[in-house]
Structures are given as C-alpha cells and as structure tokens.
Amino acid sequence: MSQASSFAASGTGLAGHGSRRCAGGTTGEGLGGDLKHRLGVSYGKVSEVLNDTFGLQVSRSGWCQADQKLARTAQPVYAELVEAIRQCSVVNADETGWRIGTLAAWLWVFTHQEVTVYAIRDNRSSEVVIDILGEEFQGILTTDCYLAYDDRKLKEWLKQKCVGHLLKDLKEMKERRSGRALHFARQVTIVLQEALALKAEKTRLDPFTFYQRTQALESRLDILIAPHRRLSDRDNARFAKRLRKHRPHLLRFLYVDELEATNNLAERMLRPAVITRKTNGCNRNRSGALTHAILASVLVTCRQHAIPILDYLVQLQQFGAAPSSLVSAAPSPAHQPISSISER
User: What's the CA gap between 71 and 298, in Å, rounded?
Assistant: First the structure.
C-alpha cells in the first residue's frame, strides 16, 4: 500500500476510507501529533506538511479525531508521569493564560529535568498544584511569586522563588529611581547576584569557606529588608515586605545542588504553548484540552529522555500500550538537608 493510502477511520476520520493502516499513515499520525502538541503547529499547517511529506489528504477534523484516539491510548502513560512528578526532588511550575472555546482557562506545567506534566484547568488556584503534585509533596517547588503558590495549604512545602524574576523587578525599580531611593534596589541586586555567583563557585570551594560566605549573604539580606528599617520610597518598602514574606525561599538554592535559582526550566516548557495561544486559538472544548495536556506531556518527556518520538508513538498506536517506561529514571524525592539559616 502506498504512503498516500488513508488511515483506517470512518466518517470524518483520517481520510475516511479503508480498513488497513499503512506504515506511512501510522508515522504520519505520530508526526502530526508531535507537530501539534509539542511544537505548537496548527492543524491546518499539519495537514499541509503531511500532505507534502506522505501524500495524506486529511482534514483538520480528521487530525483532531486521530489525536483524541492517541490521547486515550496514552492516558496510562500520562498517569505514570503525574505519579513520577510527585516523586521528584525538585519541581518547577508555571502557568499561562489559555482558552477552552470562549472561556478563560490556564495551561499549567510541572517539570523536572526528566519528567514534564501539563494540565489545563479553568482556574488558577492552589487546587491545581495540589491536584498534580499531591497533598504530601516532599520535594522543593520552584515558582515565581504568584499568590497561588503561597496558599495556606502549601504553607509547609519547601520552595524556591525565582531569583530571575526578582532581579528583573529590581532592574525596573532602578530605572524609575534616582538619588537615595536607588540605593535599596542596587544593594539587593548585588546580594542576589553574589548569591548566583557563589552557587556557580560551590564545587570549587571547601565546605567551611562556602558556609562562611553563605552566612555573610544571609546576614546582608536580612539587614537590607529588616522590618525596623525605614524606607521612605513606597515601592522600596513594598518590595522589602515582599522579600520578607518569601525570606525562607530566596536563597535555598545555595544549599541544594540540584536546585536552580530561577524558574527558567518551566518557562522554556511553556514557550510552545504561548505560540499555540497566539496562532491556533488554544482548544475548542474540554476534550481537546485534555488531549493536548496528555500528548504534550508524553511528547516532551520523550524528548527529555532522548527517546525517538515517532518510534515511540508508532509503537504506542500499534500495541495499544506504552512500549517502554518514560519514568524509570525519575529521581527520588530525597534531597540534601537545608541549612537552618534558609528556613528563617
């Protein structure tokens, strides 16, 4: 059978004719899913690419139905990924605006170097964090300073606030300040930048020297944001209050080798979603949202493990089950002890 032969489907399914699947069709279906859900390509462009590549005459609705079927097959794999992310020692999380039809929604990402889980919800609350990571999450959660991550239900969780976001805010503050009001933002920036440099030097320092330098940074930061310090500039005072609120979660990255100071990993994992939102209009219904969350999670995790994506999806379609585990190398939740200084 030629590559132009249709996928086996009925009605408006893939090509809608025949009962046999060709190798090109199976590969094309996997490639279509990867283009759409990992790379953010629209169904219209997917149709063009696969028509040119495999000669597959498939409508947008045909691709949509094929993806929904593939997502149902991949549902057990998605469940494994959710369980794996709960066991990670460090998880980076972020969210971005989304739409389901005409309704506002949010696409969330929870990611580690070897596991990534996407979820699309109609709310932006801490309930989503708990739903994905579980109430008993024992790792460290790295995020920005969005309020949902500081809900009372997550009060006892270990966290790291993104230093990159803080430095960006400080830069904007410095651009709007002059004279004495500029001093506070400059001094906090210096402390955070020195902390980043110290983390980079950690492997070259003996433990005692590293300890001394961390304590010096901790003390300098405490003095800069002390409650009794009077800051005449309102923005400076608000920023100091914000840092006091997140104080236990600002320099934790110094004490845990695996822990990054920024949330760059989660932000990178959201970039295709931002492209999709701008070009494809997100999802038309909840079924499409679930399909996207499942397939994006599986595809991105495949990429993280250097597993050939097309081979994996072809086997998934042919055998109706995961051909190999994506989570066998997921790290345990154990992490290095946190210095008592970082718990203040």
Answer: 9
Q: How far is CA 16 from CA 21, 23, 57, 115, 192, in A?
A: 12, 17, 10, 36, 59
Distance CA 70, CA 92 (A): 27
pLDDT in tens, 84-125: 999 999 999 999 999 999 999 999 999 999 999 999 999 999
State pLDDT tens for residues 286-340. 999 999 999 999 999 999 999 988 888 888 877 765 666 676 645 555 444 444 3
Please give the full DSSP string across 155-178, using - where no structure is assigned.
TTSEEEE-HHHHHHHHHHHHHT--
- The DSSP symbol for 96 reads E
Q: Encode 250-264: b = buried (16+ Cβ within 10 Å), e = exposed.
A: bbbbbbbeebbbbbe
Write out the DSSP string of 17-45.
--S---HHHHHHHHHHHHHHHTT---HHH
Contacts (Cβ under 8 Å, ≥6 apart) of 279: 40, 42
d(CA 129, CA 290): 17
